[in-house]
Amino acid sequence: MADKTLDNLFHDTLKDIYYAERKILKSLPKMARAAQSPELKAAFEKHKEQTEGQIERLQQVFEIIGKAPRGKTCDAIEGILAEGDEIMEEYKDTPALDAGLLAAAQAVEHYEITRYGTLKRWALVLNLKDAAALLDETLQEESQTDEDLTSIADTAVNAEALSSAA
Ligand SMILES: [Fe+2]
Ligand SMILES: [Fe+2]
């Protein structure tokens, strides 16, 4: 077996998050449609736009390392999104739907934050400064999205989920 190094790990993890981002892009409009709170709906719509830009940044990173942009099945995101689908089904038309959707979205953001955090650090070690800057830009967006979702939970969603009338 050939030796595998950090370059391989970086490339494989890039494929993982590329796959994940494209899955997320497909899932966000569904989540926006399902959301009852206008704030949450708007947050999902905004993040869909951002996700398109994040996919373009990943394509630039592939280009920097001289590889074609290709995804590799990411079981983690499949599982997180499947849980989100389950919530949409099981909590449809209930006051708790938005709280569940929001929690599912934050699980997605946290997965992305861990991946981009790792990739950025590896890019620095591999002396890929431009790649590190691109990955950091997305990392900041994901962190901001996570914070925005927390404030929507606190102001618009969680209290609503307590009420018995939808
Ligand atoms: Fe993303
Ligand atoms: Fe995200």
Automatic annotation (TrEMBL):
InterPro entries: DUF892_YciF-like, Ferritin-like, Ferritin-like_SF, YciF
Domain of life: Bacteria
Entry-linked Pfam families: DUF892
Taxonomic path: Bacteria, Pseudomonadati, Pseudomonadota, Alphaproteobacteria, Caulobacterales
Protein name, per record: Ferritin-like domain-containing protein
